[in-house]
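Listing 4. Sequential folding, example run.
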Amino acid sequence: MTDTKTQTHFRTCNLCEAMCGLVIEHDGEQVLSIKPDKEDVVSKGFICPKALALKDYHEDPDRLRAPMLKTAQGWKQISWNRAFDIVGKRVREIQDQYGKDAISVYLGNPNAHHHGNIIYLLNFLRSLDTKNRYSATSNDQLPHMRANYELFGHQALFPIPDIDHTDLFILFGSNPAASNGSLMSAPDYLGRLKAIRKRGGEVILIDPKKSETARVVDQHLFIRPGTDALMLLGMIHTLFDEGLVDLGRLQSNIEGLADVQIISSDFPPERVAAACGIDADTIRSLARKLAETPRAVAFGRMGTSTQEFGGLATWFIYLLNILTSHLDERGGLMFTKPAADMVELTHYLNEKGSSGTFTTEGGLPEFAGELPSSAIADQIETKGPSQIRAMVTVAGNPVISSPNSNRLERALGSLDFMVCIDSYLNETTKHADLILPGSSQLEQSRYDVVFNLLSVRNVAKYSPALFEPGKNTKHDWEILLELTHRFASGGSLLDNVKELGQYQAMKRLGPDGVLDILLRVGPYGTQVPGTSSVGSFVIDTIQDVFPASHPIRRALDNGPYGPQNRGLSKGLCIASLKNYPHGVDLGSLQSSLPERLYTSNKRISLVPGSYMTDIPRLRKHLGMLDEMLQSSVKQSDEHAQMMLIGRRDIRSNNSWLHNSQRLVKGKNRCTAQISEEDAKLRKISNGDLLKVSTDYGAVTIEC
């Protein structure tokens, strides 16, 4: 009998955005324990219950491990070559018959957690060349990406709260106690909120629900669901009305201030107070606090994104920070400088964003080449040149994560062909003709190219794969690369030769090879020893040849010899990161504007036209709310309609993790939560079964 020796592996959890460090003990074949890494440069010993699901996922007997083909006799395991042949043949046939847009792609949230997927998806999407592209983005964070694009020139240039240095944090519609943070990677988020209060600062939560986060803040203000835009306009009005607007050092890089004042002039706090349920004095007080606190920040997330006026509310939050000189300043909203900068990379690839260049058959506009996921069923069922005939999903379960799921499920059943890159037979993949499962997270190397863009500190951490993948296992990136190769073949001889060369190069490099290049040419990258001054001189000389907006100039500026990067740590590459298994702390967020802007004139336009056109709709909505509040059917009437809002749970992540028994066990979490006042009015008690209905359907649920 052979003795097995316990080994230790350091890793970053990839089950949410927080990027918590893990210590995984194993025997070479199975996980023995998962614990927090106290030496991790960001999380410093914090993890949440989800981390243990990495073991459950890896060992789950329900997880698929080979391609599965749907047959008349049921699901049948087939070889990878046959699977790729089937997909390549069917996709080409359908596109040849109906056009490129007859194929649809849906990308799920897990793709953002794998650097291999992110790197290889770009060419995969281009090989399909379809306008029917969808992702979880439009169900979640699109308002933020739209605001990034409109104000800063790039959809992925997210401003991040400098939470560790702020003295006032005003949080709209967010519950980090359950989510661990979203579009803001901050391990131990609640600990960071408590630290603000400990150093004499203040945390204020604006949320219609008394969430878990409400327990750790100084003040919780209950707002009427969906009225955040009105309250925010009331705060903006106060800034102008009381002479509190201060653009700070960015004044010469900002335009449209007078337009903001005109927009807000119709929405004084006294006008919006009743509609949003927060009195005018409180709205004014919040605006004053934000303006008068040197280090302060306002931030909104799911509650302000996933609502009727999510676009306007997100824009107004950005405006509040800009108008009070809290953008790109210590303690305010700041921008990261990641070691592998996907913002720069996508800029070079002309993927900064777009809006309204085409629409669905029903007239809904694209953003950044994607259509809203709520339109998938329409595009399948509506006849026209862009009708969906076949679908490819990658790590997504839209049947339970997209709007009007019953209709979507029916629509999927009518497709000519469907293939899912996924590890489970679930509500979506059961409709597929083929399921192509990738490796488990612990069989993959790990580096955060997406969430380092969103981190509250600049960090870099690489972890090699913990376990070798099985002989018949393929990583997601290998599946994407092979399908890209199949989809792109069939062109001219020159195109085929070029594509084959790219295919072979990407196959040899793998995601780690591409990542290594990105790290080496990035701001913290490798320099030839002893060439710091010489390299800087050469770069400065070359830069005089190119204008600031030229791609070559931007590449030089972003490299290790770039003028703004010469004081940064150097030498990052995969080999060097392997020597730091707990990660490398590259420092706190630093001011980077206007250089970091991607607008053509290096200026922030405060009032893009796309937002202006929506103001009349908000004004009309305010009038409707006024009528409702004054009508004979008062909100205290037991027959009055109720507003349904969402919530999150610490042991779940969107539609993931429901196969982990340790995370789903315990008391029923699928319950209706109702305010005590509403429950008393309707004579509802804990444990009662309620029928909750909307225009789209009804469910019976426990209270």
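-- end of first protein; second protein begins --
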Amino acid sequence: MSSNVARQHAIQAITTYKADAAPLNFAETKPTDFFGCNVFNDKVMRERLPKAVYKSLHKTIAFGERMDPSIADTVAAVMKDWAIEKGATHFTHIFYPLTGQTAEKHDSFLSPDATGGVIAEFSGSMLIRGEPDASSFPSGGLRSTFEARGYTAWDVTSPAYIMENPNGTFLCIPTMFLSWTGVALDKKTPLLRSGQALNRQAKRVLKLFGIEPALPIVSFAGLEQEYFCIDHNFNFARPDLQVAGRSLFGARPAKGQEFSDQYFGVIPQRVLSYMMEVERELYKLAVPVRTRHNEVAPSQYEIAPLYEVSNLAVDHNHIIMSTLRNVAKRYGLKCLLHEKPFAGVNGSGKHVNYSIGNAELGSLFDPGETPHANAKFLVFCAAMIRAVHKFGGLLRATVASASNDHRLGANEAPPAIMSIFLGDQLTEVFEAFRAGRVEDAAGGHRKRALNLGVDTLPSLPTDPGDRNRTSPVAFTGNRFEFRALGSSQSAADSITALNAMMADSLGHAADWLERELAAGRDFNAALQSYIEHVIEEHSAIIFNGDGYSDIWHNEAVRRGLPNLRTTPEALPELTQPAVIELYESQQIMNRQELKARQDIYLEQYCKTLRTEARLMIRMARTIIFPAGMRYQGELASTAASMKAIGKDFRTVTLDAVTEQLRGLQDAIGSLEAVLAGADEKPLEERAAYYCDRVLPVMGEARRYADLLETRVADDLWSLPSYQEILFGK
């Protein structure tokens, strides 16, 4: 075998791998029998809680009513008993600080009694509120470091659940995370507030249609999670994968994804076994995972649940990400959630299938089969068009990160220009509104006035157009698919923005219709005038073509659509006056909370690139330079030996290796120089500096290192290659 020892061990581990885990027997333990068994769900509450307490709590969960604090002790006692029956010794308040990760602090149920023993305690106050030490979480200037007090507050709408560990279990309680002054320090609090704003404004519009649902109007999300899965030995042999989550060096293999033979191909046996155990763990937690398949790139996969209320969908996605990581270890695998762990092949996203509605009405983005249903759909669809046009920059900012910047703009990831794909038929209908006319339903050349009150409005099929993989926001039948979110990111920020944008646009629709009706116009005429206005003002956001093309990029400039290519360009959108007005008017976040998020995310961007640059310097000096110089020495020695015996030996390889070593040395020196003093700059200037000055030099260093990989003798190159990592199953 020609590879060196580290690579040999990694390859040998793959070829001799045997699963330690016992086979899962779904015939004896049917998923239908244990689905949700570790969740304190409605069924458990109905069986265990006193009837009056259950009814009170159910009203809070189902109808959004304020919780009666007097029931907290009873709920806590029942929840504690249920958890202890399942082996739990501790409980934790799960929350999502502005790191974007899941956070938890475990506390024991056990407390000393007065006789030298212990008793299990869990009061209503312990359920409703926790107080973790919050001093080390990023706050963006919302509080001083010495002000460590932060509170977790029970999110009653997301059920508590039991997490299993080989040595026991513990109770997890989803919570919000706030400062003692009530400032949101997390991602869940704004999400819940945005849901309330959406409900308020959607019900205003529905009331004008004569619809007054008993249930709240909520947003739904189906979050498709893409990820890479590689043998963990390769991860340990690559410092860049281990520390940065992506390969900072790596030459393209002879074969990548160009044959399209990975997509929906047969899932490798070890990976399929891993997927099955992931699904079993998720079934216990009532995560409705449904789809698994190979993705486009080699060693890339996808797991997708059915849609759920967006708050629960976000919680479940965090559970999915942690379960993917944890279970992978049992199969000798490493799950990579980074958006672009490997250059030259597809990156990973997390598509957000977004809709609004409730159990009574279904999706309000469903075209329906009657003109009246069409009219309601067209109003809500028009509101979405206005929302994306007016707040496209905000939507782009919610997916901004150093890792996602590598992915946006190619390989089925949408461009940074926010646009909406509607499909040809739906676009034609809206264009007809702008013109005030539409072709008749028979498809002839005769024109008729388009009137929402009569049957000349054509029936709209569920799928009024093909999918567009290059569109950031695409209508896909009864929902909009937002494709720009990165695989490692929490969906909370994007869904919060979508809810806020829709609340604003639906409020605008309600204001318009109420004003028209007050002026004496009938309802159909008012609806028609609203849709005509929206399309006239906001149709620039509609684009059904190729989002990757230069033609579209030039056209987007002409239409006035922003092209925020990088994170430093995108994040200032969070503090634009229109965005501040949006969040403050909908009571979601104030100016200080938005500015804090902008600063935190810019700081994270700088820290990510600084870490990668430092790691690149170290790997170049301790791994790549030595390999290249050893090979250069071997080539030079061979040339000297041949010359001594009177034969001419001068190879192109020696010259090329020497040139590439010199180029890498110069690039690494330049990288050290540009890093010096970078962190002394003001934050926004620092982020731009890392983007404009540091990243290009990193790219240049990588170019020389990757060229060396294609030249240096294989037995001298210690880093596992892309070929080994991506195709070693």
